[in-house]
């Protein structure tokens, strides 16, 4: 993959990545697409994350589970450097994306975030039309040279997010007019419109009803073939359903990480066992 | 004097009612507040309220309407000598009678003969009426206080629900206060409308609203018909509009950008310093801005334009040069610019609140898409905040329109229909000030025109405020 420092020139190339090759799954890497080494985060004097090391492989869903306040979201926000936007936050340690440290001074966080998309807990469509919401990223990064290209990107993104059929006849309606579950899929479409390599999801279903949740989970499963997905969730069942790898966070540190089957059927640590069997958290 | 003693007595009376009521209920419950429906204090307050409130209401009514009642009774049976007098002299006569009794100002009129007897007779009658009314009111208040206490006293028992009843009294008190505020506003509007109506009987509405000449000075000359003064308000509204536009040209971009900087870029330290400073700017009295404009900015601008004019003299732009050489200290530009500075903190603190109200999730969403800060601001935050910001700007406009002091000092007093910012202009508010300062007769069209101007201005700012608040409100609903 391209080095991050001259990412700007290569963004278009990335955007037109060959989906066929990607979905074939021939390149199922076992080494991490994203790999964190001894990451610590401080908010002012308070340390929120303690030496977290974790590999997140490509074309797999990695679930981060753990009780509230254990640092899952904080860790997630390190991967696209969203912690930079919080005054007083400091990140130590290394996070390698495709062989390059994203905390390197040469890396522009703005360009990094185009490669590492994020979906938030609460659906946050912009106060714009459905079309403009999805076109937002391609517009600011100059992915489309003309209107047809832009419309194509919007259409394919909405299709991949499984929302196209529901909104095809009202693309000019405001994004906020959709239901909660539709809004969340709109936001996912917005994120994949810039063809990211990694998608971070911070409890994407916690504000949704079970039916909308099922749709999002289905979508995550579809997207897995093309992206490296990292999802924070409070639902054990969801982690078991959608993820291939799971990391259990506790008190700002990773207690145990591994294949999801392994973690759920045969946890090595007693704290993990207590948590997944519902004895605390 | 008597009324104050009565009030003091009433206060003492209700305090003792409070203490007595408390004690009664406490002893009825055997000193254990937990067995009672309401805390003992509520029982005391309930008794005290019934003691004081009816009596106070009566005393208030008497003090408000007592004088009118006295006069009506006094005039009921006029002596022949007085009925023979013309109406206005009768008024003077009765005024003098009442004033002699209550210690007001007495006219110079000397009453003698039949009139003198009538005066003496009415004086005695007025004294009687006044004394009867006052003592009657005091006695009635005393009786009411006793009756109230007597009515409330037997109700007090451990089971009595005193708490909700006191709560209702408190609600009534708050209601009364808000009614006072509303009634005052209504009164002001009514007087504006009434006086304007009188004005528009002399000067036609059409001439006032569309006339191009404003020259009310002629109107007060005794040898002229009042309405021959020129009361065309267009130059005033043009001046107001011109200065408002200049002020908004300064205040809108500076205030808005300052707000964006403060809410989106500034770190906590900068914010902690800059925000209070801006608020200090908002606390400067407008009169200080006024003399800042007149004494500092005015001469500065004049010097600037004069020196530019000097460059043009003798050249192809000779005429322009001559004009610029003659620019004075007082001009619309100075007043507008300083007013704009005055409005900056107003615009920026309102916009700051509105921008801060845009949910953080939108900011995060945009930044996580790989947008820069300024892209996030122009493409996501401003569109979301725009209605609110428009509302804030409209509120600033209505303040600019109503501002008086700066314009009085820095824009001149000449009413001219011009959009040239280098001219002296005058505004509606400034004209109202000049019309009503000094000795004036209050029924000449000149002074009455102030009410016409005031009413028009009031309607304009009212409309602006309604529109602005509506916009701000709709914006709030969207995100709450």
Termini Cα gap of chain B: 56 Å
Please count the helical segments of chain B.
Answer: 17
Oligomer: heterodimer
Secondary structure tally: strands of chain A:
10
CATH architecture of the largest domain in chain B: Orthogonal Bundle
Question: Largest protein interface?
Answer: A-B, 27 and 21 residues
Return residue spans of chain B where pLDDT drops below 50 for at least 5 consecutive residues.
Answer: none
The average pLDDT of chain A is 85
Percent of residues in helices of chain B comes to: over 70%
Question: Could you explain the architecture of this structure?
Answer:
The complex is a heterodimer of chains A (281) and B (480). Chain A is α/β, with parallel strands linked by helices. Chain A contains 12 helices and 10 strands. In chain A, the strands form 2 sheets. Chain A has a 6-stranded mixed beta sheet, with helices on both faces. A 4-stranded antiparallel beta sheet of chain A has the order 2-1-4-5, with helices on one face. In chain A, α8 packs parallel to α9. The termini of chain A are far apart. About 9% of the residues of chain A have low confidence. Chain B contains 17 helices and 2 strands. Chain B has 480 residues and is mainly alpha-helical. In chain B, α12 packs across α14. Classes of the chains: A alpha/beta (281), B mainly alpha (480). The interface between A and B is medium-sized, with 27 and 21 residues.
């Amino acid at each position: 993959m391209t080095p991050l420092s001259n990412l700007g020139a290569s963004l278009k190339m990335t955007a037109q990545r060959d989906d066929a090759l990607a979905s074939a799954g021939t390149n199922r890497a076992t080494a991490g697409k994203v790999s964190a080494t001894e990451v610590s985060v401080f908010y002012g004097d308070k340390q929120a994350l303690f030496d977290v090391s974790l590999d997140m492989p490509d074309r797999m869903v990695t679930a981060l589970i753990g009780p509230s306040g254990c640092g899952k979201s904080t860790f997630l926000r390190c991967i696209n450097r969203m912690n930079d936007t919080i005054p007083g936050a400091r990140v130590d340690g290394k996070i390698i994306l495709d062989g390059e440290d994203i905390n390197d001074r040469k890396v522009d966080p703005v360009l990094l975030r185009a490669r590492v998309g994020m979906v938030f807990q609460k659906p946050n469509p912009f106060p714009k039309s459905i079309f403009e919401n999805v076109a937002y990223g391609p517009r600011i990064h100059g992915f489309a040279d003309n209107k047809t290209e832009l419309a194509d990107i919007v259409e394919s993104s909405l299709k991949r997010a499984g929302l196209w059929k529901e909104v095809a006849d009202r693309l000019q309606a405001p994004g906020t007019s959709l239901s909660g579950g539709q809004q969340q899929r709109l936001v996912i479409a917005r994120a994949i419109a810039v063809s990211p390599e990694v998608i971070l999801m911070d409890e994407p279903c916690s504000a949704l009803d079970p039916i909308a949740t099922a749709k999002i989970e289905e979508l995550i499963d579809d997207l897995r073939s093309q992206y490296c997905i990292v999802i924070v969730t409070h639902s054990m069942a969801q982690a078991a359903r959608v993820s291939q790898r799971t990391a259990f966070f506790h008190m700002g540190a990773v207690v145990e990480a591994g294949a999801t089957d392994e973690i759920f059927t045969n946890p090595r640590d007693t704290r993990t066992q207590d948590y997944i069997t519902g004895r605390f958290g | 004097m008597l009324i104050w003693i009565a009030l003091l007595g009433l206060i003492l009376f209700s305090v003792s009612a409070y203490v007595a009521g408390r004690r009664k209920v406490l002893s009825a419950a055997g000193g254990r507040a937990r067995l009672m429906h309401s805390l003992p204090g509520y029982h005391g307050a309930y008794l005290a309220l019934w003691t004081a409130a009816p009596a106070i209401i009566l005393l208030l009514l008497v003090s408000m309407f007592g004088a009118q009642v006295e006069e009506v009774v006094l005039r009921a049976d006029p002596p022949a000598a007085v009925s023979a007098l013309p109406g206005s002299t009768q008024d003077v006569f009765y005024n003098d009678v009442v004033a002699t009794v209550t210690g007001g100002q007495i006219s110079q009129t000397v009453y003698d003969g039949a009139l003198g007897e009538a005066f003496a007779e009415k004086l005695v009658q007025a004294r009687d009426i006044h004394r009867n009314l006052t003592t009657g009111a005091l006695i009635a208040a005393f009786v009411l206080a006793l009756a109230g206490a007597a009515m409330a006293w037997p109700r007090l028992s451990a089971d009595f629900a005193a708490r909700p009843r006191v709560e209702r009294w408190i609600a009534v008190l708050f209601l009364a206060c808000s009614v006072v505020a509303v009634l005052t506003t209504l009164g002001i509007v009514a007087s504006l409308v009434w006086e304007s109506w009188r004005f528009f009987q002399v000067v036609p509405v059409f001439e006032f609203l569309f006339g191009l000449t404003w020259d009310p000075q002629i109107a007060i000359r005794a040898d002229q018909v009042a309405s021959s003064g020129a009361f065309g308000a267009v130059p005033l509204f043009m001046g107001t509009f011109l200065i408002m536009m200049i002020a908004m040209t300064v205040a809108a971009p500076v205030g808005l950008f300052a707000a964006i900087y403060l809410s989106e870029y500034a770190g906590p330290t900068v914010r902690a310093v800059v925000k209070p400073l801006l608020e200090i700017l908002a606390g400067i009295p407008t009169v200080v801005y006024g003399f800042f404009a007149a004494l500092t900015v005015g001469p500065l601008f004049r010097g600037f334009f004069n020196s530019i004019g000097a460059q043009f003299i003798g050249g192809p732009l000779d005429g322009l040069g001559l004009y610029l050489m003659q620019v004075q200290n007082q001009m619309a530009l100075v007043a507008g610019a300083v007013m704009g500075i005055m409005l900056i903190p107003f615009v920026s603190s309102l916009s700051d609140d509105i921008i801060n109200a845009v949910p953080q999730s939108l900011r995060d969403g945009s930044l996580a898409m790989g947008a820069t800060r300024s892209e996030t601001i122009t493409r996501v935050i401003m569109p979301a905040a725009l209605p609110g910001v428009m509302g804030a700007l409209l509120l600033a406009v209505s303040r600019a329109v109503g501002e008086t002091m700066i314009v009085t000092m820095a824009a001149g007093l000449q009413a001219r229909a011009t959009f040239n910012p280098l001219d002296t202009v005058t505004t509606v508010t400034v004209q109202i000030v000049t019309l009503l300062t000094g000795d004036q007769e209050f029924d000449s069209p000149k002074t009455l025109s102030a009410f016409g101007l005031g009413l028009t201005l009031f309607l304009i700012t009212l409309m602006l405020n309604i529109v602005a608040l509506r916009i701000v409100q709709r914006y709030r609903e969207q995100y709450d």
